[in-house]
Inverse folding.
């Protein structure tokens, strides 16, 4: 492809792009590079596919569904439908999860790779030696027009006294346990910690959650955090927010965690300990420090709006550039980085209207600004909150836990935020995300058909709640 951007960037190198890290960001970068006519080297030092398919999104979401099926046997809200008892068979559930992971890794990573002839995979750890060369574990050096770093992130634990010495589970090891423990302490009440905490609780594990900030899902709207904490407690989880952990120790066959809450000393004891207190970028130990790349406070690679690092020959994308750490952000970033590396900084990395989901039950989904963030940004917010008892779908499903909160700009009536706590809230959030990205107004939402009875009708009802009392409306909220 003479004259193509890829060939222009190659300048005598063996590859146009060398991508370090074969997770979702790396794959998206490799595919975009191949589509642009580039010769691409993809270097993966661990398991192909990275975090999401192997130890993140995929295994956690299928286990959450399995745990939900177990929970619904006895908790479905319908009189006349028998509830059934019985312990889950964890080793079968886990094996089914492993099968799905293996299938998807094969189909979406190995299989996809085979369909791009211009991508060469190197299954080795790599070190970045400059903006134009990468050294492989076996000593070979790959020369590149441009390098893209997509090395992801790893679980991070705070410096709690005793923690490093006693050892603990992380997201990967907890989902691979040989057997279900009787009890588990989960340190960290954000998405990963809460999803796993509820999943194990529903499989019969006695779970204690310890969160340092004043409520669970602390990055979300405050009312959502309060309400979700209460729903989890009602389900039997022992949820403590606003704690300060003083000491972790091994006692008998398990763990003892001493913590302070409301000025009082308390103790939690359990057979297993899971630490889910965030993830930090993988940027150490493979040459980045000496390659002119700047690292931020948490070790993440600092990039400009084109995902280019301080070394113009090196781009970066995915979890390695820090928050927000989601797989769809990683994949988008990989594609943007490859295009910019090959074609010369033409595509801006734009996260406007980025939705996020916590897969608890009820789930949390949000996009845009909270009421307080709007005020801080100098916007006078209009807020509408619709409890789910006004949503026919929730009534029919006999599950009215949660609410839909919409935030609009008083001056323009444009939607600027949505914060949802509902069963399957993740299935509802794309509509407000679209509204925010394309500047839609309250009237655009109320004037759009929403099928009866769906949960997404809750978005229309919440939009109507800005101006009307929906309890006085009849069917279909016309
Ligand atoms: C439990 C859990 C659940 C999650 N659930 C969701 C979800 O439901 N939805 C969602 O959007 N996101 C979810 N995430 C986040 C999501 O998994 C990540 O945002 C995403 O996988 C990041 O992709 P990445 O390509 O940036 O990094 P990774 O997928 O981590 O890939 C990085 C790759 O680089 C390799 N590597 C590192 N250093 C080197 C080196 N020096 N040489 C060669 N290779 C190297 C690693 O082996 C790894 O394979 C979840 C995460 C966790 C932990």
């Amino acid at each position: 492809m003479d004259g193509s951007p890829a060939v222009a960037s190659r300048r005598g190198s063996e590859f146009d792009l060398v991508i370090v890290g074969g997770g979702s960001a790396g794959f998206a970068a490799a595919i975009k590079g191949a589509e642009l006519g580039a010769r691409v080297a993809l270097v993966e030092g661990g398991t192909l596919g990275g975090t999401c398919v192997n130890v993140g999104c995929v295994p956690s979401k299928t286990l959450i569904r399995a745990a939900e099926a177990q929970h619904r046997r006895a908790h479905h809200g319908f009189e006349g439908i028998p509830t059934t008892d019985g312990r889950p068979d964890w080793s079968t559930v886990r094996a089914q999860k492993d099968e799905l992971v293996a299938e998807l890794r094969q189909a979406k990573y190995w299989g996809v790779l085979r369909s791009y002839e211009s991508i060469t995979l190197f299954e080795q750890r790599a070190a970045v030696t400059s903006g134009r060369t990468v050294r492989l574990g076996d000593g070979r050096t790959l020369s590149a027009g441009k390098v893209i770093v997509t090395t992801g992130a790893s679980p991070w634990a705070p410096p709690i006294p005793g923690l490093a010495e006693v050892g603990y589970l992380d997201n990967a090891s907890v989902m691979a346990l040989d057997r279900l423990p009787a009890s588990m302490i989960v340190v960290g009440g954000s998405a990963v910690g809460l999803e796993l905490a509820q999943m194990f609780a529903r499989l019969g594990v006695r779970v204690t959650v310890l969160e340092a900030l004043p409520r669970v899902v602390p990055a979300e709207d405050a009312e959502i955090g309060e309400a979700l904490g209460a729903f989890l407690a009602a389900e039997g989880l022992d949820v403590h927010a606003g704690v300060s952990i003083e000491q972790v120790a091994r006692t008998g066959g398990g763990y003892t965690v001493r913590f302070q809450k409301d000025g009082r000393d308390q103790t939690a004891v359990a057979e297993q300990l899971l630490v889910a207190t965030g993830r930090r970028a993988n940027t150490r130990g493979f040459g980045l420090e000496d390659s002119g790349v700047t690292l931020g406070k948490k070790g993440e690679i600092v990039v400009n709006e084109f995902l280019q690092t301080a070394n113009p020959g090196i781009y970066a994308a995915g979890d390695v550039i820090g928050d927000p750490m989601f797989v769809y952000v990683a994949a988008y970033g990989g594609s943007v980085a490859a295009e910019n590396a090959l074609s010369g900084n033409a595509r801006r990395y734009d996260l406007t209207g980025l939705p996020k989901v916590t897969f608890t039950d009820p789930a949390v989904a949000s996009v845009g600004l909270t009421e307080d963030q709007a005020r801080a940004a100098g916007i006078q917010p209009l807020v509408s909150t619709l409890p789910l008892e006004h949503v026919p779908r929730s009534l029919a499903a006999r599950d009215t836990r949660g609410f839909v909160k919409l935030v609009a700009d008083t001056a323009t009536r444009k939607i600027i935020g949505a914060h949802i706590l509902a069963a399957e809230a993740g299935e509802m959030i794309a509509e407000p995300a679209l509204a925010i990205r394309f500047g839609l107004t309250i009237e655009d939402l109320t004037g759009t058909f929403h099928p009866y009875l769906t949960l997404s009708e809750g978005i229309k009802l919440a939009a109507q709640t800005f101006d009307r009392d929906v309890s006085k409306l009849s069917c279909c909220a016309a």
